Amino acid sequence: MSLVPLEDAQRRVLAQCQPLRPLAVPLAESLGCVTSVALTAEEDVPPWANSAVDGFAVRSADVATTPVTLPVTATIRAGAPPEPPVGPGEAVHILTGAPLPAGADAVVMVEDTDAWDGRTGREAVGAAVTTKVEVRRGVAAGANVRPAGDDIRAGQTVFGAGTVLGPGHLGVLASIGVRKVPVFPRARVGVLSTGDELVDGGEPLHPGQIRDSNRRTLLALLAEANCEPVDLGHARDEEAAVRDALTEALGRCDAVLTSGGVSVGDFDFVKVVLDELSGGGFAWMQVAIRPAKPLAFGVVRGTPVFGLPGNPVSSMVSFELFARPALRHMMGHAATGRPQALAVADEPLARRPDGKLHLVRVRARWGADGRVHVRPLGGQMSHHLHAMAEANALALLPDGDGVGGGADVPTVLLSDPDPGFASS
Ligand code: AMP
Ligand code: MG
Fold first, then answer.
1. Strand 228-235 to strand 188-194: parallel, antiparallel, or no bridges (unpaired)?
2. Residue 235: pLDDT band with limits 50, 70, 90
3. Does the CB atom of residue 82 touch ligand 1 within 6 A?
4. How far apart are CA 233 and CA 277, in angstroms?
5. What is the C-alpha to C-alpha distance for residues 379 and 210, in angstroms, rounded to an integer?
6. 229, CA 20 to 30 Å: which among 1, 249, 361, 369?
7. In sequence order, which ranges of 337-402 are alpha helices (DSSP H)?
8. Is the pLDDT reported for residue 266 higher than 50?
9. 210 lines ligand 1 (CB under 6 A)
10. If phi over 0 gives left and psi between -120 and 50 gives alpha, with beta otherwise, what is residue 381?
11. Tens-digit pLDDT profile for residues 60-93
């Protein structure tokens, strides 16, 4: 069976995965989702002119010549109505975020005033004090005032279609009163482990048994990718068991990941069942990569099923290369892959020619030169899950002899490089 180049395999998978039907989801549940249409503001932000500082609302003409002393007629706090109006030659004590009263066109910062007794006219009624403020420095019209609509105007497009919603976006949508957001929904993705050797949880192991780690990893990778993980448990290496588990999952999942059962072994039934159920749209590929060579992929009743390899590192790498981009495409992302950097290899990354692209588990950090630097981790075989867990990047070594220390190496970043001099 000939090896399929990585890009060809990725293209083949991606071409069969369609974006999910957009849905209006509550704002509180929209973090990380992608907008399906442009969003328009129906109100101004701020909704009315308000003070940017603690100070005194005035008519700027009244403070053109300073120092000048003005009577203070009231205090307006944030949340209070914009009253009373400021008459000619008057000032109103105003706090940050409070609405600007009629008549005023500027606010003098409290730092630019003197000789205020700290009481409003209203509080001073009956008291034997004159409530007044001495303004030391004049202000131009509009000074220290945040006009209505200064941040966002009613009618404005706030975010285009295809925006990935982050915390700031959710804040903006809250600021304009949006309660439901039209987005591509999170994909509900089932994870099914296969293998007679697998044991769940902490039961004692009998000879020949191992604990199921892939399901935990894949469910976590899905959660990290902003999908909705669905735990489908584990199926034995029997054709009927795999078929039943898959068939049951199809009804309630947008996509399914299986692990194991896609190699060339006699008991590798996932590829057999997928071939049978998918009716044509099935691919069983030997991809020209290491790790994660075997991949089974099929669309069953409109639902993509990714038959990932069973070796723990392979299943993670296969998820990264095939499932994650496809799921992101389904969830409306234009950028489906992880970020890549041309990193500096701090140590040689040696390999032997074998016709495959090698994905080397590395630790990446920011160097003092502002570049990403990588060093290989021990344990580069497909069962070395511990080294994979320690890796925050995969260095890409095309077929050949690898690269020497100090050379550039294209690197896929699985998470942020460790902080270093340049980023601190
Ligand atoms: P397979 O692809 O089914 O031939 O499995 C390849 C290797 O991965 C074997 O050593 C399996 O025992 C191991 N393996 C399969 N599934 C899992 C799993 N869920 N957790 C940990 N190891 C697994
Ligand atoms: Mg197996």
1. parallel
2. very high
3. no
4. 20
5. 19
6. 361
7. 385-390
8. yes
9. yes
10. beta
11. 999 999 999 999 999 999 999 999 999 999 999 9
Residue type, 85: P
Q: To which H or E segment does residue 329 belong? A: helix 324-330
Question: Identity (one letter) of the amino acid at 59?
Answer: R
Is the beta carbon of 237 within 6 A of some atom in ligand 1?
no
Average pLDDT, the chain: 95
> 12 CA to middle of ligand 1, Å?
25
DSSP string for residues in 141-173: TTTTEE-TTSSB-TT-EEE-TTPBP-HHHHHHH
Selection from 113, 43, 32, 37 nearest residue 72 by Cα: 113
**CA-nearest residue, atom 16 of ligand 1:** 310
| Residue 306 token pair | 């990714």
What is the structure's pLDDT at 20?
A: 98
Q: Yes or no: say if 140 and 106 are a contact pair by the CB < 8 Å rule.
A: yes
Count, residues in the chain = 424
d(CA 385, CA 401): 24
Contacts of 220 (CB under 8 A, 6+ apart): 229
Cα(30) to centroid of ligand 2, in Å?
Answer: 37
Query: Which residue's CA is the nearest one to ligand 1's atom 17?
Result: 310
Give the tokens for residue 417. Answer: 């490089």
How many CB atoms lie under 10 A from the CB of residue 402?
19
User: How far is ligand 2, taken at its centre, from the CA of residue 363, in Å?
Assistant: 30
The whole-number pLDDT of residue 109 equals 97
Q: Which ligand has its closest atom nearest to the C-alpha of 267?
A: 2
Output phi, psi for 149, to 5 deg.
Answer: 75, 10
Q: What phi and psi, each to the nearest 5 degrees, are found at residue 63?
A: -115, 25
Q: Is 265 in the pocket of ligand 1 (CB under 6 A)?
A: yes
pTM reported for the whole predicted model: 0.94
Q: Does residue 193 line the site of ligand 1, with CB under 6 A?
A: yes
